[in-house]
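Render this sequence as a predicted structure.
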Amino acid sequence: QVQLVESGGGLVQPGGSLRLSCAASGSLFSVNAMGWYRRPPGKQRELVATITNGGRTNYADSVKGRFTISRANDKNTVYLQMNSLKPEDTAVYYCNAHTLMSGYNYWGQGTQVTVSS
């Protein structure tokens, strides 16, 4: 069992920055990758960024060069640094943990990010 708790969401102006955090706990030995997904209003959940245990990262084209995913393994925390935010970045952002052996995905409760002037 893995528990994920997101924090750091809020309201920011276009061009601003925000840093999301995801605190993971539980059976973390089974997790091989973690990431961030988002669900814009009226749309399906989409990939934002992922990071493997080995540090390999992957980003959606829409956020490349603006967002950075990182992991503090000693604190079991994953971060998403979001810069140059745009209104289209507005969404509920979810932390994800993927288990390689079972293929199971754990999800956090989500944190709202709103980009508006």
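Summary. The longest strand covers residues 18-26. The chain has a mean pLDDT of 94.
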